[in-house]
Amino acid sequence: MTEAARRRGRNETEEERADRMWGELIQEVRVAQTGVQILFGFLLTVVFQPKYGKLATVDQVIYIVTVVLGACATGALIGPVSLHRLVSGRRVKPQAVRLASRMTFVGLVLLLATMTSSLLLILRVATHDGYVPYLVAAVVAWYLLCWYALPLWARRRHTSRTDEKP
């Protein structure tokens, strides 16, 4: 195998790398954004259902917390689009990509919290059983494994010292 064939990575300028990373980030945001917007839309309808008034106070508090978390997740996941629109053409794409990436990460954490509290509320209303917190904890553990632990493991496992940024 030749040296060129073994070489890893891309020969890109900072701007080319930012363009590529921006495209990848926007594709990722589209997936998360759609999910959080659908979830948030359904959450907004709950308060208008007749059963809402019959919920226990603790369930109403969980609902309010869930709606606020959903609103915050929506804001964080739509933020990169607004950022791009407002800084487009200002020659700050590498910085914008870093900031948008952070907003997306925060949005995913808020989405995790929204889904957790949604699941808690739904299972509390549907079952009234004591196993609900354990079931919710198991689902959260699954999310943490899929969304954070496995990606971080893969990053650590497959990133060589030469690939790392200083």
Provide a descriptive summary of the structure in words.
It contains five helices and no strands. By secondary structure, it is an all-alpha fold. Helix 2 runs antiparallel to helix 3, helix 3 runs antiparallel to helix 4 and helix 4 runs antiparallel to helix 5. The chain is flat and about 60 Å long. The protein starts with a helix and ends in an 8-residue tail after the last helix. The model has no long low-confidence stretch (mean pLDDT 90).
List the helices and strands and how they pair.
Blueprint: H1 3-6, H2 14-46, H3 57-87, H4 93-127, H5 132-158
Distance between the termini: 29 Å
- Main β sheet profile: none
List the total number of helices: 5
Please identify the structural class as seen in this structure: mainly alpha
- Radius of gyration, CA atoms, in whole angstroms: 21 Å
| Proportion of strand residues | under 5%
State the share of residues found in helices, binned by percent: over 70%
Shape: flat
> What does the average pLDDT come to?
90
Features:
single chain; 166 residues; mainly alpha; 5 helices; flat
What would you say about this model in short?
The protein is mainly alpha-helical. It has helices at 3-6, 14-46, 57-87, 93-127, 132-158.
